[in-house]
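Narrative summary of target 7.
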Amino acid sequence: MKVEFFLIFLFTVKAGKSESLCKKGVKIENPNEIDKIKGCEKLEGDLTIKNTGIEKIEFDELREVDGTIIVYGVESLTSISFPKLNKTMGLNIGHNIKLKQINFPELLNSKKIKVFNNEKLNFINMNKLRDTDSFELLNSQIKSLELSDMRTVGLLNIYSNPELIGISLPLLKECKNETNISENDILEDINIPKLVTIGGEMNIDSNPKLKSLESFLSLANIEGDLIVNGDIETFSLKKIAKIYGKCQLNGSKSFNCEAFKSEIFKLANVNCECGDKMATSSTTKNPNELNYKKLDYDGTEELKNNAINEKTKNDEPTKIPGKSENTHNYGKINSEVKSSSSKCELTRSGENVLKIYLIFLFQVFVVYYLSCQVNFDS
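Modeled conformation, tokenized:
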């Protein structure tokens, strides 16, 4: 009887201690410390794992982390697995030089996800992820990125993954911030067929094997700049697409800016301008900064957008063909393009409307002043 009572007492103390650990953030620097929280279903606070000698991180029971999961600089780590986790405030997984696999099969929501500088990483499973404010994949060995259930994302940044061949986000409808897909050496295919809106800049740059951009058939609004540089031969957008920033297109052969003006921007209140002279682009990339420098144009002339008031005939995508002639200098891009090439700059026509309005007000004032003078003289 005394033995049974003692065992129950020990179990209760251990359970209480484990429960208290689950109610605060945990920092693990010793492999033995992981066992203390393996029974937690919910962790309140950050879970930080750094500088340990552990090879595998497995939390079989953890379902929710009310904080950020940080796994950084664990040199011996080869795999991370959270088979039941469905919610966390964020994932930050970086500089784990032997890490090969990341497994979050039940994860639905996470505010921010950043997976970076894991040079051996070749597998990610987040197939149930639906919404995140930020998804970044930088410098991995992933061959195929599939986020089959993702619906909305804030920032989408897929940068410098030398083994990446394909990107598939078949259900993604909205990117609320920038979209950047660049410096992926052998990327051949981007499949995002249901994307309707990009709330910031769209940048697709220096993917030398990428020849076609035909999967953006639903894309109707780009609220920032559209920047496409590379050996692109075919590019498709909705005919009714609106672009509210600048348009810079540098394909393998000249794109026709007039075609863009008349076919794509029918419903957009913009003018399209193309450079008359040689334009030079020199852009230095930083994987953590998406504020890329834009082309400066010399000797441009304004073209009226006569297509604004035309009625859109159908919803078929516009295709702009080209032929491969480009060379690439990764990290720093220096390209020269002729005047009829794909450098297009969009400017709003609001300034012209304002000028007309001011002229009208001035004319009204002159007429009123002259009428007052006539009445005074009489």
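The chain has three helices and 30 strands.
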